[in-house]
Specification:
The protein is mainly α. It contains 3 helices and no strands. The protein is globular.
Amino acid sequence: MSDVIDICAQDVAANAAHLGIALSTARCAEIVVAVAPTLARVRRLNPATEGDLYAFENALFSLQSDD
């Protein structure tokens, strides 16, 4: 499971960087672990929400910052 979190965290960090937001991979791992249950539930309930989930991730990045 750790490998999955690491891969997701790297992807989140790359997406954040693309948006001009500097987040460490460690911070992204915390974010991934925190929101994974909610995102999984939303995807399971309505797979057509993928675009909305991407927008949610972008909004989440705007609320997060590295300390």
